[in-house]
Amino acid sequence: MVEATQDKIHLQKAPIKRTRPKIATLTRRGKIFYISWYDPSSGKRRIESAKTSNRKLAEAMCRKRDAAMVMNTTELESRIREAVLDPMRAARVMEAISKDPLPQVTVETGLSEYFSHASTYKKDSTLRKDRNRVRYFFSKVNITFISELTPDVVQDFFDKKINGEYMRSIKKAGSSVEVMEREPPVKVMTNLRTWEILHAICAYWIKPRKYLTSNPIEEVAYPKPTLEEVVILEDKDIITVLATLHGDMLEAPYASALFGGFREEEVTYLQWPDIDFDAQGVRVTGRLGWTPKTKGSVRTIEMSPALKKYLLDQRKKTMRNPKQAKSPWVFSTPNGEKWKTDSMAQRLIRRLRRAGLQSPTGTPWNFLQARHTFGSGMARQGASLLEISKQMGNSESVAEKHYVRFMKGSARMKGLVNFFNGSKRPASKRAHH
Question: Is residue 214 situated within a structural domain?
């Protein structure tokens, strides 16, 4: 800075701007950049690959790592001060700091690193579901550092979730006041998915991150689901459901699951080139952005007379709509767009719920139950487990688990797979309105 007077010019030194030293630095080995940083909690220098040759991108990742390490250092000190107000939490934090030589990394940082790694090989839809499960879990257990994650904490979460001991706030219809109520108990399969993703995350924190020495999830009882008997539609249920859906956009998709054994997502991704009316077959194959559930799911489904009739009717309907006629999708929306799997399922539930139709479980009939009806019908007609598995797109062990009980000589549902056998379908309930 310069200050002018009458006879002199005084030079003033500009104030020195003091900045903290950087914790993370950027280095280059060949074409790939690496991020090196000092970990205050462990007293060691660590290095990781930025997995890019772009300097600007690597510098951005380095700044992010630097900010994360500073946050961990300052947050560790603040958490210790805050823990004085909570003796149990203070004991847990101090025990982790004094006995565990591992770095004190926050759960938020660890999860960010894991999902950044998982995004390289998992689909976006899978990542979204995993994030939701993990976010819910850590919101209930209320821990800050990875080292606080113990088998007791995880087991307590599963016990409370199955028994419905957690509370949630909801707004009653017509009121803006929030009230607290118990969350409904969850199925074992829901806990199983949470167990699996937590196990994968902790395994990542052990190697390569070395935030843990052992996987605490392995000491938690594996939530084994009980084998539930498949629910199928009886003859009267088939007639009633199809009559209710007659004329609806979901009539042909539901009939495809009922008479072809399609999965719900297979129905939504079906295209006209996959159908060969002359060879009486429908090809199930992957699409851009979607792959079938298993390798065996890529298959050719034999077309029964009933399935062929519904598919031919569907082709006639789409040709009458200019937008649908240009669409490659067999079952498209009126605008010619592909159905979203969840949207189709929700529309089916609403349609059958309004009609008062529900399965023995108390829920409206869905695509899975229609698919099981097809498999059980094949079993009653004398098909082998190999034939059923090829048509359904699963393994023989799965076919045995679900359909072997229908192969014990009963002919009560004989002819169900070829239901109506191409004859006139039941009249709609809305025909007289």
Answer: yes
Q: Are 15 and 8 in contact (CB under 8 A)?
A: no
pLDDT 10s digits, 152-191: 998 888 888 877 788 877 776 667 777 777 777 666 667 7
**How far is 22 from 238, CA to CA, in rounded Å?**
69
Q: What is the mean pLDDT of the chain?
A: 78
* 407 shares a domain with 339: yes
CATH at 136: 1.10.150
Q: How far apart are CA 355 and CA 349, in angstroms?
A: 10
- Structure token pair of residue 132: 């939701």
Q: Where are the alpha helices (H) located in 41-106, listed in sequence order? A: 55-82, 87-99
Which structural domain, as residue segments, surrounds residue 345?
Answer: 235-422
Confidence of residue 198 (pLDDT cuts 50, 70, 90): very high
Write the burial class of residue 137 (CB in 10 Å: 0-12 exposed, 13-18 middle, 19+ buried): buried
Instruction: Read off the pLDDT of residues 400-411 as tens digits, 9 standing for 90 and up.
Output: 888 888 886 544
Please tell me whether residues 219 and 289 are part of one structural domain.
no
